[in-house]
Amino acid sequence: MNRKEFLKSSALTAFSISTFGFVQASNDAFEGDCETTNDILGPFYRPDAPTRQNLIYNGLSGTTIELKGKVFKSDCKTPIKNALVEIWHCTTDGEYDNTSKAFNLRAKWFTNSKGDYSFKTILPGKYLNGKNYRPAHIHFRVSAPNSKELISQIYFKGDPHITSDPWASIKKAEQRVLPIQLEDTIGNLTVNFDIYLKDKT
After folding, report:
1. Other beta carbons within 10 Å of 91
2. How far apart are CA 81 and CA 78, in angstroms?
3. pLDDT by residue (tens digit) across 124-156?
4. How far apart are CA 90 and CA 44, in angstroms?
5. Which of 60, 72, 89, 159 could form a disulfide with 135 if both were Cys (CB 3.0 to 4.6 A apart)?
6. What is the DSSP letter of 155?
């Protein structure tokens, strides 16, 4: 499949999407629906990505970021230990590594006892979906025992191509359009994405 002739949503496997929802505390009990919304898997997922946190390699161009967050249970407050977090995205030229043994810009990691995960990577570029560019995005696949698997994507605030994208522009993606933040006094950039998994029924 040619990435630059990315198929329309009707030709892709789509996943049901739920509203980000709310959290309400009452008498020290939490009620609400904070489930992270799903997104399309897309055609470029590869299983068996390396277990690593640093996706930077020699010759890679782009703005370095730290992508980090926590994975929680559906009660919106309990962190999940050893949740599997997989990410993948394209280069600044809009190309995915679909074949090499290096699995460039692809990785997996397991959350620690506090539910934390983090990756060092770059801000991805863009590629054409028909006549429009897809906004810059990073794919996620997250799984944990007793939780439903999450397949999703994050986008970035200020990206002008969000409004024309059939997936990033919908209301249920709003909580996944994230700011790029200055982490410290020396210019390190971070993107924070907390993930809330739905319990298996």
Report:
1. 17
2. 10
3. 999 999 999 999 999 999 999 999 999 999 999
4. 10
5. 159
6. E
Residue 42 has phi, psi (to 5 degrees) of 80, 170
Q: Residue 133 is inside which H or E element, if any?
A: strand 132-133
3-state SS, residue 122: strand
What residues contact 20, with CB distance under 8 A and at least 6 apart? Answer: 33, 34, 35, 36, 37, 172, 174, 175
- The edge-to-edge listing of strands for the beta sheet with 138-143 is 106-110, 84-88, 138-143, 150-156, 177-178
Q: Is 134 left (phi over 0), alpha (psi -120 to 50) or beta?
A: beta
Distance CA 128, CA 16 (A): 24
Distance of CA 72 to the CA centre of its chain: 15
Nearest-angstrom CA–CA distance, 143 and 17:
16
Give per-residue pLDDT as tens, 7-45: 443 333 333 333 333 333 334 443 446 899 999 999 999
Give the SS3 label for residue 171. helix
Tokens of 191: 């993107």
Phi, psi of 158 (to 5 degrees): 90, -5
Right CATH for 3-196 from 3.90.1150.10, 3.40.50.2000, 2.60.130.10, 1.25.40.10 = 2.60.130.10
Domain layout of the chain by residue ranges: 3-196
